[in-house]
Structure formats: C-alpha cells, structure tokens
Design brief:
It is a single chain. By secondary structure, this protein is mainly alpha-helical. It folds into two domains: 46 residues, no CATH class; 79 residues. It has five helices and two strands. Strands 1-2 form a two-stranded antiparallel ribbon. Strand 1 and strand 2 form a beta hairpin. The longest helix is centred in the middle third of the chain and has 25 residues. The chain is elongated, with a radius of gyration of 17 Å.
Length: 126
Amino acid sequence: MLLNPCRASDPMLLDFTDDGRPTARHLDQPGRRFRAETSIRLYHLDHTDLVEHRRLLAIELNEKIDAANELYDRVDTGDLAIDRSYNSHVRDLKNAMAERAELSAFARKIVAGRRDLPWVEELFLI
C-alpha cells in the first residue's frame, strides 16, 4: 500500500509544488493517488521542517540557475574566472540532482522547471 522508495517506479508517484509541498502526481488515477497521499501522510513527507527544507533548496537552486545564466553567454570567451564560476554553478546543480543527493527528486523538478533556458536541458543529458 505505501510507496517503497527502493522500488524504482514508486517515487515517481510523488510530485512537489514549487514551494516544497508533496502531492500525488496522478490525481486522475485513484489507486496511485491513494498510495501517494497515504505515503505522504504516514511518512510525514509534508512535515513543516521538510517542506521548509525543500523551499529553501528551491531558492538556492534558482539562484544558482540565475547566476549561471548571467554567465552563460560569456563562457568560453577567454575569461577563466567566468568559466570557473559558471562551471561551479553547473556542478552544484548536477550534484543536487544526483540520485544519491538529499532531496534529489525535488531538485530535478525545480531545475526541470527552468528548461526554457537552453543550457539547462543539457544538465539532463549526461
């Protein structure tokens, strides 16, 4: 009945709002919705501290995306400081989305929400 985080397909039944609140991904599928909502409640995925931790992570990730985006057009122009700073932001974003990172599913959702930026899509390729 509960979602099993070790089962590859189960975590995909969860989604998150941009402010960190967990929700069921498949609202139109009663069985999947029930499992997700029950797991959110029983695993306390909606605990205030955890929601706040996700909210702060979203702010941090969006700040890194904005900072990297400011540098994006100046990368590879010969300014080593710009290249280093851009690559540092990209590395931090990729680390946050890494499978073993804390709150990685939420991080991937936040970063994916910025796919309107051409370089963000590349973060998901490798």
